[in-house]
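One-letter codes give the sequence; each number marks local geometry. A record appears below:


***
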Amino acid sequence: MNERTPLLKKDGTQKLIASLISIILGLVFGSILVLIVGAASKVITGKGSWEGVSLIFAGLFSTGRNAAGNLTWGINAANFGNMLFRATPLIMCGLSVAISQKTGLFNIGAPGQYLMGMLVTLIISLAIPATAVPPIIIWLLAFLGGILAGALWGSIPGLMKAMLNINEVIACIMTNWIAANVVTWVFDASRFSVISGEYFCQNKWHVANGAFQNLAENTKSGYVYKTVWNNVATPRLGLDKIFPGSQINAGILIAILFAIAMYIVINKTTFGFQLKACGANRHAARYAGIKDKRNIVLSMAIAGGLAAAGASLYSLSGNTEFFWTTYQSLPAIGFNGIPVALLAINNPIGVIFSGIFMAMLDIVGVQLTKLTAYNEYITDVIIAAIVYLSAFALIIRMLLGGKKKKADGPDANAEKPAPAPAAPVAEEAAKPAVEEIKEGGEQA
């Protein structure tokens, strides 16, 4: 009779514990770094150093400073709302990386897919007059258009991997920079095209000679117009009343629904099983009748669509600006999907929590900048430390399961019956063959 494995000995539990240990060690490392920087700085006092450490662990609950200059704590609704708002694209990019990992692929092309989704979403949401088409229809078209653009862009490395066996990492890096240059070219060239000359917004804004660059506000020409200029924005569904003073909208709910849907697809459907089978062993999957090439392309297309959906939700919020000169840089949020997926152990439900955690670190960085002499880049170091520690998750899991392996070693071998009795059986089974050989020799 098989005994049930204790909860702490289960593989999933040990993976979760390994991720939590990585997070805690990363935060401890960041705290030590804050103390070292504070000790080496002439500006930061000992009190300031400890305030920096406290903000790293509890910055989400910071409400500012009182009249005496001391940090105050409490439930900060704006911080919580902004955390969930920033978590939305992180969750989607984390899902993008996690789903591709299930098929044995490393989608480092999320930044490029994110950019292509952003490009198409902004063009659709700004080029269709809200006076001619209801804003909700424009929103839906822009959202779906962005997903489709990302899916098509993601399928390019997938096709190269499936048909030509080109490493997806190399192909993704190339498509990232192609996307960065395409986005810059399109928004730059839009000044010289004629798309619409009509005013179609309450703010008397129009796409003057087809330009998507923000020429209506001074010093904003490096940004694309916000979608709210065309009365297109993601509904808040009352979340702004729960988290007043924040940027939150229904995008976080959509991201959570996507994560749940991906969990069901991967773990509860035949298609998900086929994706995981290709990830485990592509050649064995093909031998079993699974179309490995098709699944590789579909996996990358789904990954691209998810990353682009994150860009669409971010840009359609109506209160964000997109810096269109991207040919020299890639969006960090696309790369941040990698640590989100790592911390979640590629589990779609886990991605929700790891995405929120990474967004919390962003808020912590903002609080450090506002309330202390430190800057927000200290949180980037913490994230980097967590990512490196996540890479050692397997070692942490081995250490966690070390006692079990040690206990199962010599004791288990001692309890097992000796294989000696099997020898006579084998010997008896071999006798007829030996006798036949002897008879054959005598006849010869």
In short: The chain has two domains: 11-75+373-402, 90-355. Residues 11-40 form the longest helix (30 residues). The chain has a mean pLDDT of 82. The chain is about 65% helix and 0% strand.
